[in-house]
Amino acid sequence: MDWSKNQIKEFQQDLLSWYDDNKKPLPWRKTTEPYKIWISEIMSQQTQVETVMPYYERFMKKYPTIETLAQADDAELLKLWEGLGYYSRARNLKIAAQEVVDKYNGKFPDNLADILSLKGIGPYTAAAIASISFGLAEPAIDGNLMRVTSRLFELDCDISKSSSRKIFDGYLRKLISKKRPGDFNQALMDLGSLVCSPKSPKCEACPLLNYCAAAASGKQLNYPVKTKKIKQKDLYFTAFALENSLGEYYLEKRPSKGLLADMWTFPLTELPAADFEKMITDGSVSKNIVIPELPESISKMEYIANFTHIFSHQKWNLAIIKLKPEETFEVADELLSEDKMWVHFDSKVLTENGQPKVSRSQIPLAGPQVKMFEILDKKNKKIDLLK
DNA sequence: AATGCGGGGTG
DNA sequence: CACCCAGCATT
Q1: Residue A228, in any domain of the structure
Q2: Whether the Cβ atoms of residue A321 and residue A302 lie closer than 8 Å to each other
Q3: Of A146, A158, A165, A204, which shows the fewest CB atoms inside 10 Å?
């Protein structure tokens, strides 16, 4: 960051005067009492201020001091927290209150390290209390500050990674007002929620417009950089291993559209999670399994093994079911077509007229299928050794 | 570094 | 419905 001292000074003034005119009228902004700031900050974690306000008022009425909180009835405290979520916050509050009473003689610690040591207080909350209640120049880095800062300087670091925190800390430590650090932090929080919002930032109304690199280049929406935290959807399949008398496996070609288009796969059928869990637990083959249309009649099914495969957006849980045909049988060519075939493990096997048979190394296999072949390989080798 | 933990709002 | 949000403790 190459801003001059004068520039930083003007930046602080522009931000703070905006805050003085536009700050949200929150009940805990009428005080700097550490106890009240602490409670408000804990309640505000991952929670909208509008949701927090009634809880805050009730909390302060019931537990007006840190001593009353330290002696709170667990059930009553939890009851008061009911509906706010993240209930360990309430449990930790009481533990921390007891710590303050026992270790600090009931006086809330006034330095960052001691504040940070309290149960339930992490880097963000510690800095918020330190700056608001004790005037310490500690940047309280939350999602808002990271968003605003990443736009100001077009920072490309991924805010979802914990290692990015120190980068934001570096910038904000240079920018923070030493005279009004608490207001500085809260100003950036309000700015982040009122003006510098994630989807539709109101740059024309922003007091920091002239300082903002992203606004200058029109790339506001490119920031902050955040890797999508995709919750993969769990899907459950049975994968059928049907082997013929030549040691080949029956594969099908997937549809030409969608996931793993045109790749080859063992026949798959989806099944409910509960059935899957039961099968891999006790080896019982679910009665609900839908057996795919196969070229031979099946006499028995046997659970072999299970494995998983992660896609970007899906997690496949597969259970291998070995299908055991009646005695021996030959390849029924007339039942095969362009999207169904028998595939051998290797390419050295020849057909009757001397042509190499189709091997698994010649066709595009979906990721899970490669894993499945490996598992089947191992099983077969194990069986060979036993012979 | 990754995961679990609630609930409400938004587009 | 998918994504977002004033985080922290635990592993």
Answers
A1: no
A2: yes
A3: A204
